Amino acid sequence: MTGRAVKFRQRVSDAGRVALLGVLLSGCVTVYQPLSSLQRPAIVDPQLANFEGMRLLVRCIPGDYLKVPAAELLCRRVGALFRNQGAKVETDVPRHGRSSRSLEESAQPDLVVDLSSRLLHKESSGPLWALTVLTATIVPAYTEYSVAQDVTIRDASGFLLASDSLKARFIEYFGAGIWGVNWALDTLVRPPEEELSGDAPARDFSRDFYAQLSQLAFNARVRSDVLRSFEPSPRSGGQQRQTGAER
Q1: How many angstroms separate the Cα of 14 from the Cα of each of 11, 17, 21, 25?
Q2: What is the pTM of this model?
């Protein structure tokens, strides 16, 4: 083997080591931006017994963006959210468009909460990712996407009490430099509520989502109570019929 071939092989090996080191030292930094309804102030405290004694049915509907395992995880977490507020919660993940629970065969819930997710937008630059690979992630790449969590709340009869679409934008930056700088800032400078590395963005989104969901469910409960207050009681109806007969 000639000296030139040996040098070329050594350079390729060194470049491979640098690229591998860059990948190993790289990480993802996610920026969470609340949109639309997630920015509204919520006055309901999820730590209080806002639904004491109520029966809630939470249905997480799988789709193109929300797969079955993710829907099951969402139902477990939302179920825990409402149980902590005093409700008796049942969860359901419909498969193939069919629910595994029949409202006629089971105890009638006071509220039926339907949750579904949609991917609104996703953007990523192919040339930038190629440059990231060529520079061993020194030049960061990014992926931006927006999602919507659709919430519909009805009573057992199917009457619509509340609905909303909670939207958020996430920007994921990938690279050794940007991850290292933000990790150092999170460790040394930033308070926990302002961190960008780790699970901080997911935690911030969950905080906003659970607060708005609790507010929507509480609004639905109040609306349901108000509507029921207008229903005539059987006793008053009997008295009216008796009075009419006397006339």
Answers
A1: 5, 5, 10, 16
A2: 0.74
